[in-house]
Design a protein that fits this description.
The protein is mainly alpha-helical and about 170 residues long. It contains seven helices and no strands. It starts with a helix and ends in a 19-residue tail after the last helix.
Length: about 170
């Protein structure tokens, strides 16, 4: 059976229309994710595990106050990241994405199970490994996590007294 040029062009145009309609339906049903940093699922659990490991020694010892301090710091951390340039937000998003992905988490951190089951000692050991790692990329990732968490903790004026910071000068406020 021989295909004419006209029927071939008609079939091509019909296929293009079908593909365009399918793409439109897909885009309508699955809107693109918002630009910027979004932390959810296992990535949020990673943050909840990292915050107390970095802030060990300065968090309250009473359980409910400790849990509240960790949650407040995690929220300030999220807001801090949202204030960074979009390119930096994407890099932090990629880091948390790797930490959330099971095989990558196991390979990069040595933590074999999910973040919610990770012990404080496991997380502290992993952070120490990254702090002194021979690869500059992992040392940089540790520094980023460390600085973001500490910056978020000390952005709360209630935590200034612990380091003897009286706050900004009254004349400048």
């Amino acid at each position: 059976m021989e295909t004419s040029r006209r029927s071939f062009l008609k079939a091509g145009a019909l296929a293009a229309l079908v593909l365009a309609a399918g793409g439109g339906i897909y885009r309508y049903a699955n809107p693109p994710p918002p630009k910027g940093f979004v932390l959810d699922g296992e990535a949020r659990a990673a943050m909840q595990a990292i915050v107390p490991a970095i802030l060990a020694g300065v968090l309250p010892t009473e359980a409910s106050a400790r849990k509240q301090a960790i949650a407040a710091t995690a929220e300030r951390l999220n807001q801090t990241i949202l204030g960074l340039p979009l390119a930096t937000q994407q890099e932090v998003q990629d880091l948390f994405g790797l930490l959330a992905l099971g095989p990558a988490r196991r390979l990069l951190t040595g933590i074999p199970h999910g973040w919610s089951e990770a012990t404080g000692a496991e997380v502290a050991n992993w952070l120490q490994d990254w702090r002194t790692h021979r690869l500059a990329l992992l040392r940089t990732a540790y520094q980023a996590l460390h600085d973001l968490v500490l910056g978020s903790w000390y952005s709360d004026p209630a935590n200034w007294a612990a380091i003897g910071y009286p706050g900004p000068l009254k004349e400048l406020a």
